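Thread: acid phosphatase, structure

OP (GT): Posting the sequence first so everyone is looking at the same thing. Length is 324 residues per the record. Can we get the structure tokens written out before standup tomorrow? I want them in the notebook alongside the other entries.
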Amino acid sequence: MRRRDFVKGTAIAALGAVLVDPLDTFAETGETQLSSDDVSMSSALPDDYSLHFMAVGDWGRNGEYDQTKVAQQMGLWAAQRPNNFIISTGDNIYPKGVVSEMDPQWHYCFESIYTAHSLQCDWFPVLGNHDHLSDPDAQLRYSKISRRWNMPAKYYTKEVDLKNGNGKVLFVMIDTDPMLFDEKKDYTTKQLTWINDTLKNASSDIKWKIVVGHHPYYTVGPRIKNYDTLKIREIMTKVFQEHKVDVYLSGHDHSLQHIKPEGVTHQFISGAGSELTPVTSGVANTRFQASEHGFMYFSIDKNRLNVKAVNMDGKMLYETELTK
């Protein structure tokens, strides 16, 4: 045999041993060993609810004040559980919103922070007071640039099907900041007419009515009795009662809260996406309050509305379920 043929044959045999033998050994075990990182977790924790979404607010701070950590935990949470979309409760960009749909703040506060694959779903935001300090219409125009940012107007509505003929959820997304200013009375009057008409004309298959705005109408944060809270309460309480709104979801106070004042409507606050503000314990009608970074996770079917408050470490701080 010529020397180069011998070397060539030896090399091929050795390569075959490397490639074949481990595979044969692996096959002989009859088992497949995969770590959790090797498989998709999108359906690892299934449940029987029809609709799921996360809510986060007061977040846009270039990743600071633990915004990045909250975003990372949101990504992990949504990768392991069903999630249809994300609601932002306002103050999307600090300190003064954006000046245009091309403002670099979109990159530094949003696109480069919420990077997980599981967060590349639809986001449905409302405007906060900080968003009104520059050009709030730029946040509407950004909807034409971003695939996931969906804000068709300063106030708008969305109906979500619960599937299999089990009805729908009505989301009424409102613009609360102008309600605080007398010089914007005409705008507020027009918006309130629209809110009342939207809720009044809700179809018979609407099982849950959820209103989303930035300013709370009850809180145990720093703004318990300040003008913002009292003004929104004055304007919106009658609306909530008359139209039997199930949930009012807001931000503004930088914490996680659940308050149940008199009437039908539950107040949930999810404003802990970055900087925190303190909460007061022992206030009447308060079911939960925490000054911890995090978000809320909602699961809904025709008879149940489940809410979880989750901190940036993935710990569930609170869970409640509304039924009807």
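GT: Both are above now. Quick notes for whoever picks this up: The chain has a mean pLDDT of 89. The chain is about 25% helix and 25% strand.
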